[in-house]
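Give me the 3D structure for MBL fold metallo-hydrolase.
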Amino acid sequence: MEIIFLGTGTSQGIPVIGSTHPVCLSRDPRDKRLRVSVMIRADDSVYVIDCGPDFRQQMLRHPVERLDAILFTHEHADHTAGIDDIRPFFFRQGDIPIFAHERVVRSLERRFDYIFADGDRYPGAPAVAVNLVEKGTPFRVGTHWFTPIEARHNRLQVFGYRLGDFAYLTDVKSVEPEEMKHLEGLEVLVVNALRQEPHHSHFNLQEALEFIEKVNPKRAYLTHISHMMGFHEEVEKQLPGHVRLAYDNLTLTL
Ligand SMILES: [Zn+2]
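Predicted structure for MBL fold metallo-hydrolase (254 residues):
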């Protein structure tokens, strides 16, 4: 299995438009972060988790002919706003399978009504095949079983996903205690760490490190990073050896 970090930035990305913050002006390519997403290549299948506003650019950087599914964590725009750009996949494959909580699907239906329309469809509009994800119910995509992991983004429910010994959690402020059993025995955990200062709906660095200690994976990578976290190179020096900051285009093999 191969994990490709398509984006590791928070909602505005790094650099922030018009910002003169030193991290936004950094020349280190690891300080340039598109909106958060990962691609999972497992056997012959390709999955992405979330489909934010940088989706097109990410798919041009890591071109694949086929997309077997999109798994959504939640409905916020930085995780969903790129869904119109599934069109090239739709033209080749037909309806693109999406997996999400029912609330997320309802939100997408309102905001992208033409994608979900039954009749009188605009020629060229993409279409999706909807699959609802429920807490506590693993689901199969092709030959792979994913386990949803329920967490909270302030008060909003979000799903993380586990495939084999890999788990991906983003936009998390807390994880339900009964969900922790789904995170046992991980090779790689990816989890969000927004910045050094506390935030109402995201783990900050310290909370993410405490969570990693509880989960105890072999390796952990931090994502959904704000420019306020600091320079990639300097932040990494503060981290224990088995915890790294993810960066765009980083590829892991499991
Ligand atoms: Zn987000």
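Helices lie at 55-61, 77-80, 87-93, 102-111, 113-116, 205-215, 232-237. Let me know if you want a second pass.
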